[in-house]
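User: New here, any thoughts?
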Amino acid sequence: MPNPFANVAAAWLAHPLEMARAWQELASVTWASGMPAPLAEAAEGDDRFSDEAWRDNPFFHGLMQQYLGFTRTLERQVYDTPGVAESEAHSAAFWLRHWCNAIAPSNFALTNPEVLRRAFDSGGASLKHGFEEWLRDLLAGDLRMVDPAQFQLGRDLAATPGRVVMRNQMMELIQYAPVRREVRSVPLLLVPPWINKYYILDLTERQSMVRHLVGQGFEVFVLSWKNPRGDMQEVSFEDHLFDGILAAIEAARTVAGVPQVHAVGYCIGGTALSALMAWLNRRHRAVRDIPVAHWTLLATLTDFSKPGDIASFISDESVALLDGLMARQGFLDSQQIGWSFRMLRPNTQIWRYVVHKYLLGEPAPALAPLAWNSDGTRQPRATHSFCLRQLYLANRLAKADALDMRGQKLDLGRIRQPLYAVGAVADHITPWRSTYRSAALVGAPVHYVLTASGHILGIINPPGGSAKQQYWSAPLVAGRDAKDWLAVQSPTPGSWWQDWTAWLHGRCGEWREPAPEAHPDYPWLCEAPGNYVRER
C-alpha cells in the first residue's frame, strides 16, 4: 500500500535547498534558540485551549504557542512539498494532523492546567474517577461517548407512536399515528442511511423530525433497515434500492390510498434514493407513472469527486484490504465503521473524551445524538464494496449512463421531480459544496438550503434551538457554483425545518382524513420502533 509520507519525504530529499529552508523555518518556531515561539493563538472553537491558564500563565501560554506554531508550520510545509500531487499531499497532511492532535499538551495530565487544578481541588478524586472510567471502557472494548444505560428505545428514543406495517429481509416500514384529524394527501417516506439506525430521525420528543412532521399534519412513514449479519454478505446496493426503498414506496402509497409519495433521503439513503429516482425516470415516460411526486435530500452526495477528508481513507489499495477483511467477516463491523468516522474529527470525537473522562474524571454526557451514534450497524460486504468502488473511487453515479441497474442506465439529469436539497456548513462527511454540486446534477427544479452546524445537528435542527440557528434558502441556479450562490444569499434566523414544512405544505395536496384501521394488505405487525432497530 503506498505510503504518502514516504513519497513526501522522497520529494523533499530531491529538493535539498528547499528542504534546508523548511528545516530553518521549523527551527524558528521552537525553543531551540532560547526565544519563545512566535505568536500562535488557538483557533476559534478549539476548546482544547479554552482554560484561562493557556492565556494567563506564561508557561502554559508559551507551551500552547510552541505547539500550535510548530504543528501549523509542519502541516503547511507538507502541502507545499515540491513535486507531489495535491491529493497525495492532502492525504499525508491528514495523517500528520492525527499525530499532531495526539501530542497536544492538552492531552497529558502534567501539561494540562485544568487537569492539574481539578486533581488538586479534588484531592486526587478526579484522577481516581478517571481511572475508573478508563477501566469501564477497557472492559467494554471501546472509548464510549455515552453510557448506553441512560437511554432506552421506545421510552427516551424512537418513542413517537406508530406501527410496523411491512417487513421483509431488508427493512421494516413504520407508519406513524396521526395527531391531527386531517393529514395532507401526499404522505412522506423517510429513507435514513443504513450505516446507522433509523431513529436519528426520531430522537427525543424535542429533537424528533418525525414528531415535528406528524405535528405539522403529514402522514409519515420511515424505513428501519435490518442490521445485517454474515449471511447477508451478498446483499447489494441494488437490493437497497428495490427491496428496500421502492418496496417501501409501494407499500406507503397503498396504505395511504394515493398514487404518489414525497420521498426524503438522508446521507447514503439519499444517494440510493437519487439512483432510484434516475432509474424510475428512465423506465417511465410519463411523470404521472412515477410513484414519487417530489423529493428531499438531506446531506447527500451523488457527486463524490470531492468527498472531504474521508478521501484520505479511500484508495484502490485500501479498498482491496477492506474487501479482504469483509470477505472473511461477511460485513464491516459497526466499531470499525465508527472509528473511521471518529478519525475524521479526532479532537472532538476522540481526544475530548480522553481528556474529560480519563483525566478530568467526568462521566460520559447523556446526549441523545451520542446514544444513537453509539448504536451502530454492520455493512453488507457487497453493498459497502460497491459504494467504495463505484461511488467514491469511480464517481459513476455523477456520470450519465455510467451505472446500469436492472436494465436501466442511470442519468440524474433525467429526473423531473422537484427537489428540496439541504447541506450543512460544518459537515465533514458530506461537505456542503459537494452536496450543492450533487443537487445541480438533477434535471428538475432544485431549491437548495444551507444550514448551520454539521452532518447531524445541522439536519436534526428543531425550531427553538440555539440562538445561533440560521439557514440560507434559495433556488439553485444552473451554472452557478456553491460559492457564488451563497454570496448573494442572506441568512434567515431559526430552523430550516420551518422553511421545509412550508415548501411541503405547498406541494403535498389537500387535507384528508387518515385511514382509521390497518390496510388489509399491510396489517399492523407490531408497535414502533419495531424489531429490526433492536438488533445488536
About this structure: The two ends are 33 Å apart (CA to CA). The mean pLDDT is 91. The longest strand covers residues 292-298.
